[in-house]
Amino acid sequence: MDNEHADRGELDALRAAFPAEHCLPPLGWDGVRAFERAHDIVLPEPYRTLVAEICDGCTEGPPDIDGLIPLAALPADWGPDDTQRVLAEPFPLTEAWVWEDDPRPYEEIEPLIDAVSNHGSVVLGTDGCGMYWHLVVTGPQRGRLWNISDVGAAPFGAVFGTTAATDGFAGWVGLWSTTRRPWYDVVV
């Protein structure tokens, strides 16, 4: 997983996975750089090049519900309050956490739950039932995808044992493109 340089093979696979007739126009490099400056981040590759050159959202493709949402958007079911989102703050997790099973009082873990949902990631879309796909843009997990729901958060990728697919955005899209199944249906 190379977060700094776009791989031509990965970009070709992304172009194939997101059919142009279902895509929103790309932001262009000026638009991507403006977003990055506004949030004090640099998007990881190959997502960065996808948004700049291929598309800024697509109704066909992952995630399964409504597809890939635009860079600056949130899913329709996200809720009214997006003021807590701070992309420049590091994403706080490095391993899965099921807060529903956490024995600590909710008042103690609530700030961390809020940080998991709101810090250091862009939301790519939803698989429904309150399950959101996040691409981490700051912190040790930069470039990795996480599925965050109302009960916990789990990382995506073979390195975590959650799937046989490679880590990162290209691996996530590649798995969807070849299986047309959610990542959690794949037997490792």
Automatic annotation (TrEMBL):
Domain of life: Bacteria
Protein name, as recorded: SMI1/KNR4 family protein
Lineage: Bacteria, Bacillati, Actinomycetota, Actinomycetes, Kitasatosporales
